[in-house]
Structures are given as structure tokens and as C-alpha cells.
Amino acid sequence: NSRGTASLLKDSISFTDVSASGLFEGYDLLRRGFTSVKNELLPSHPLELTEKNFQLNQDKTNFARLRNIQGIHAPLKLQMEFRAVKQVQRLPFLHSSNMAMDILRGNDECIGFEDILNDPSQSEIMGEPHMMMEHKLGLL
Q1: Which region is the signal sequence (predicted)?
Q2: Which one, of 93, 91, 88, 116, lies nearest residue 103 by Cα?
Q3: How far is 113 from 119, CA to CA, in rounded Å?
Q4: What angle, 0 to 180 degrees and rounded to 10, lies between the N-to-C axes of helices 73-87 and 54-70?
């Protein structure tokens, strides 16, 4: 279905933010990080969108299954727990393993790609702590 694929592609492409001072303002590397052309490209394969949304699709399937088996309270309770776990975060310049989210999803006993090759010392998100906290608090 070409119409459905086109709408998915249109929804997945994000446009860059234009600040109030104009288009010719310099790019703020400290706040936004390095630019990546890979993130702005269209998917090269039809399955790429499906793989990108795999966890969301799996959560929807699990919620539907829980609703059919246990009733409406089970997926609602699980969704409330997901929201509570997402609100608790570390400081923006520290790496987080999201262990509580893995436990809720049942991934705590599985060893995946991100467990082995997600070394925090090689992370690209590390920046100056004071600048990142001021940005998060809205002081900059």
C-alpha cells in the first residue's frame, strides 16, 4: 500500500527547529550535539520503519493480550508503572541503564546488543555538566 507507506514516511521525518532570531543563527553544538545526516535520510528498506518501531509494536501487542486475558486493569496498571519509571531519571550528563524499565518489560534476564556494546565510557552524550543542567532547568 503506497499511500500508507507515504504517510508513515511523512510522519517519521522531523524538521529542524528554527529559532526566533532567524535561519542564519549558528548551530549550538553544546545543547544539540553533533549533527547526523543518517537521521535525516528516508528509510532505505520497507522493513526499516517496522524495526524502528519494534518495541512500541511489541508493547501494544502485550497490552492487547493482557486486556483479553486479565481485563482492562492489567494494561492500565502496567502503563502507569511505565510512566512512573520514565519520570525517574539521572542527571542529563550521566549514563542510565534503565534497569527498572528492563524489569517491567521482562528484558532483565536477556543479554542483547546494547548490553555488550553500549559502553558508557564511549558515549557521545557526555558534555559539560553545568551547561547541561542549566539547559535542562531552563536557565540558559
Answers
A1: none
A2: 88
A3: 11
A4: 140
pLDDT digits (tens, 9 = 90+) for 27-77: 677 777 777 776 677 767 878 888 889 989 999 999 999 999 999 999 999
Q: 83 with 101: CB under 8 angstroms?
A: no
Q: What is the pLDDT of residues 63-86, one digit of tens each?
A: 999 999 999 999 999 999 999 998
What's the whole-number mean pLDDT along residues 82-95?
83
Query: Which three three-digit cell numbers place residue 21?
Result: 532570531
Mean pLDDT of the chain: 77
What's the rounded Cα separation, in Å, for the pair 123 and 66? 36
Identity (one letter) of the amino acid at 69?
A: I
pTM above 0.85, yes or no: no
Single-letter code of the amino acid located at 136? K
The type of residue at 6 is: A
